[in-house]
Design brief:
Layout: E1 2-6, H1 12-15, E2 22-25, E3 33-36, E4 52-55, H2 65-70, E5 74-76, H3 83-99, H4 101-109, H5 118-125, E6 138-142, H6 146-157, E7 161-165, H7 171-176, E8 182-183, H8 187-193, E9 196-199, H9 213-216, E10 223-227, H10 236-244, E11 248-253, E12 266-268, H11 277-297, E13 317-324, H12 329-339, E14 343-352, E15 355-363, H13 369-373, E16 378-383
Parallel strand pairs: 1-2, 1-3, 3-4, 4-5, 6-7, 6-9, 7-8, 9-10, 10-11, 11-12
Antiparallel strand pairs: 13-15, 13-16, 14-15
Helix pairs in contact: 3-6
């Protein structure tokens, strides 16, 4: 029996994928896994029983990854599960940036009470909210992951000329991307050519404030910028200044910060990217499937702190070992297993940074947990 702790409301569509061997609760003790959406886990004391955390979404900044890695807790996310929801909102944001729709709606509300004069007032005042069409314009998509690929393909369908930039594009991303997307070899190509720029990259030291004064200076006058990835990818002060200087026509973001609220030319949405029932269902289903596969078979798919390792099961037992990525650990584990009289029939091992994960399918039912745990560089051992 497995205990699953839920820290947020998780879609029942996903929870129903758990078998009768699982008990889900928002207050269970000694959980083997945690399902979380936005709740912060940074101050949470991780129980010794905890083997996995699954974030029903892409971002994991609410989870203490270093601490989890040190304690041998595998952290999963659900990349691509909310991609279509975000893509649709990005397209909406692009239209909002062009046509002054929000300003027009708010102005129209002020006409209440003018009776039959409203029609004439609308015709007289509507020119203040005119804006360009997106067809035929150039858009640069920075980051061609699950969301970026969908945005690029959708923009093509809308008649735009699309530039894509991603030096780390995955094989899956490359297969999904239309061949009509122009390959930008540098960010400068995006900045120099595009009327619209949309960002779809994770927040790292390299991507933080990629939209800044220096890069804005390289952009076309009147550029429109969309940020539905992370607030910190953009330097707010530089955006505000560029809008005041007419360098940037509009900035649309899904991340509200105090400094940009109420600034003309900036449209802020209340983090609606994944706020669809379909997205919540998809994220929950993927998270549950990841947790089940790890708890039941030891396979790791879509982890953000451990390598991806999957293997069909053979043998009598499966020995799963999280260990430091240093020399001779695998040979030590193999020796310990052999000393119990068991035979290794199949194995797989991969590393990620300072950590590694190894699976051994073993013939024989000897207790190998204690023996393998004695190895100094082993962090966690589990026998399934």
């Amino acid at each position: 029996m497995y205990n699953i702790l839920t820290l947020n409301k998780i879609s029942n569509t996903g929870l129903k994928l758990f078998s009768d061997e699982y008990v889900c609760s928002d207050n269970c003790e000694n959980p083997e896994a945690v399902l979380v959406r936005s709740a912060s886990m940074h101050e949470m004391e991780m129980p010794k029983s905890l083997l996995a955390i699954a974030r029903a979404g892409a971002g994991v900044n609410n989870i203490p990854l270093d601490k989890c890695s040190e304690e041998g807790i595998v952290v999963f996310n659900t990349p691509g599960a909310n991609a279509n929801a975000v893509k649709e909102l990005v397209i909406a944001g692009m239209l909002l940036s062009s046509r002054k729709i929000v300003d027009g709606i708010e102005w129209t509300k002020t006409l209440k009470g003018n009776g039959s004069a409203v029609g004439k007032m609308v015709e007289k005042g509507k020119s203040a909210f005119a804006g360009p069409e997106i067809m035929g314009k150039k858009i640069g998509v920075i980051g061609l992951g699950a969301i970026g690929v969908l945005v690029a393909n959708a923009a093509l369908s809308l008649g735009m000329e699309v530039y894509g930039y991603d030096p780390y594009i995955s094989v899956k991303g490359a297969w999904g991307l239309s061949s009509s997307v122009q390959h930008a070899l540098s960010l400068d190509t995006i900045f120099a050519n595009c009327d619209y720029i949309t960002i779809h990259v994770p927040l790292t030291n390299d991507t933080k404030e990629v939209i800044c004064e220096a890069n804005i200076a390289k952009m076309k006058d009147g550029v429109r910028i969309l940020n539905f990835a992370r607030a910190e990818l953009v330097n707010s002060n530089d955006i505000i200044k560029a809008i005041a200087d007419k360098k940037i026509s509009a900035y649309v973001t899904d991340f509200a910060t105090d400094d940009i609220i109420g600034v003309d030319g900036i449209t802020i949405l209340p983090h609606l990217g994944a706020s669809t029932p379909e997205s919540e269902d998809n994220c929950a289903k993927m998270a549950v499937q990841e947790v089940r596969e790890y708890l039941e078979n030891g396979n790791i798919v879509n982890s953000v702190n451990m390598p991806a390792v999957s293997m069909d099961r053979t043998g009598d037992i499966r020995v799963c070992v999280i260990h430091k990525n240093v020399p001779n650990v695998i040979s030590q584990i193999s020796s310990k297993i052999s000393e119990t009289g068991s035979n290794i029939e199949n194995m797989q091992s991969k590393s990620r940074g300072d950590y590694a994960y190894s699976i051994f399918d073993v013939k024989g039912n000897a207790d190998v947990t204690t023996a393998v745990s004695e190895i100094s560089d082993v962090i966690r051992v589990r026998v399934i």
